[in-house]
Amino acid sequence: MTKFEYLIIGGGIAGTTAAETIRKNDEKGTIAVISEESEPLYSRLTLHHYLKDLIPFERLYLRNDNFYKEKKIELFKGKKAQKLDVSKKEITLDDGQVFGFDKLLIATGGHPNQWQVKGEDEKGVFCFRTIQDAKNIKRRIEKIKTINPHVVIIGGSFIALDLVTSFVKQGLKTTILVRRDYFLQNRLDEECAKLIEDILRKNNIEVLPHEEVEKVLGDGKVEGVRLKSGKTLKAGMVAVGIGINFGLEWLKLAGISTNRGILANEYLETNIPGVFCAGDCCEFWDVLSQTQHRVGNWQNAQKQGEAAGLNMCGKKTIYETVSTYSISFFDANACFCGMTDLDGASFAVTRGARENGSLGHLFLKNNRLVGATLVNRLNEQSSIAALIKNKVDLSVVLDKLSDPNFDLQVLL
Ligand SMILES: Cc1cc2nc3c(=O)[nH]c(=O)nc-3n(C[C@H](O)[C@H](O)[C@H](O)COP(=O)(O)OP(=O)(O)OC[C@H]3O[C@@H](n4cnc5c(N)ncnc54)[C@H](O)[C@@H]3O)c2cc1C
Predict the structure, then answer these.
(1) Residue 352 confidence (pLDDT) above 80
(2) Residue 377 and which of 3, 132, 244, 265 are 20 to 30 A apart at CA?
């Protein structure tokens, strides 16, 4: 059996950053990365640029095979870890290989939730997470452009925003079906979400709340969808973005504590000593908000990869960051910063108004900022992140915060 001093499961940004960090801090230690995907690291953030023809396919890659060789990081591509034995310190892969480890990192990200609807196996139904998905969608765009230039997107999510701007750029008429009352309902309050919907409609996107597909129509390939309301829509392609799951069953069986993600302390170490986690799958103890917290964005995954790598090398590092996620769509933008719900805050202050096209909510606890959601107020992002990080006491300016023109920068 081959044994590695550092074994990393998942070759995304969290896993790759951890491997690089370990190599910087331990020149000789043996490092292996097990990656279910058959690719070196690539950017999920720019997949939509490829769909829009803004960058060529090759530009999606952030590392090449040589990089791993040079850094003496063994990359096992197209292999899935499926069993963990914490007492023997062994991982079993789907091809039966067993690897031992001294330190283990789980950086397995998430998998798109499966959409279970009649006809979903018709050719032309896609999810959007991997480089392979992007390739498939691109091919489909080219196919339907002239014969059936209509797309239906399932789910009002961030992924929907990346997709919709790509489809519009490619001249496809796009409808977004939202099962709940409004867009991004699990992340945004109604007014912010409605502002996003206003922007989409202004760009000729149809957004249909309370609508679900009953059946995908077609004969071998997608031609449209029939909705539960009875309506039918033309569609040469259906793109599904209904959230991700973390596939943690095999880790639970091994005795790893989980909630929605894998539970970890502020050093990103799980309940099993020597087993760490990082990235989308990691639900860590957030020292800033004093809560167990999971974050699903690139910057967080990268920084957690770095912190986990340091901790695996014995350099004790508390993971502390204000995570931010921003997205641009058409001529608008939305941004999430820190804790963005009332679970982690005691009250919220509204800045701006939907009618004026710019709206934000500041979330506060003990008169200190813990998070914010911003639509078309991206210029406030860095001040907000600094106010959260520095735990600035806002008691004396509480009454001013709701003034959309009050400059947050002056508080720093
Ligand atoms: C289309 C798209 C657009 C996005 N846009 C943005 C954006 O604009 N800004 C932003 O901040 N974030 C964005 N995100 C989110 C961001 O990409 C993720 O937060 C980030 O990639 C998480 O990195 P990760 O390394 O934790 O997980 P992943 O990137 O998911 O990598 C995990 C890897 O582990 C592999 N794996 C899983 N299980 C196993 C196993 N058992 N064995 C071996 N390998 C396994 C997976 O196949 C995957 O390759 C976007 C995501 C998508 C899909």
Answers:
(1) yes
(2) 244
Mean pLDDT of 155-168: 94
Q: Which CATH number describes the domain made up of 2-110+246-312? A: 3.50.50.60
Instruction: Write down the pLDDT at residue 304.
Output: 98
Cβ 280 under 6 angstroms from ligand 1? yes
In the predicted model, what is the mean pLDDT of residues 165-171? 97
CA of 5 to the centre of ligand 1 (A): 24
Q: Is the pLDDT of residue 17 over 80?
A: yes
CA–CA dist 7, 411 (Å, integer): 45
Please identify which residue in the block is written with the tokens 């001529």.
Answer: 331
pLDDT of residue 291: 86
Report pLDDT digits (tens) over 196-228: 999 999 999 999 999 999 999 998 899 999 999
In the chain, residues under CATH classification 3.50.50.60 are 2-110+246-312, 112-240
Task: Fill in the amino acid letter for 229.
Answer: S
Q: Is 93 in the pocket of ligand 1 (CB under 6 A)?
A: no
Closest CA to 59 of 76, 84, 42: 42
Q: Which fold has domain 112-240?
A: FAD/NAD(P)-binding domain (3.50.50)
**Terminal CA-to-CA distance of the chain, rounded, Å?**
56
Give CA angle at 270 (266, 271), nearest 5°. 115
- Report the separation in Å between the CA atom of 48 and the middle of ligand 1, taken as the mean of its atom positions: 14
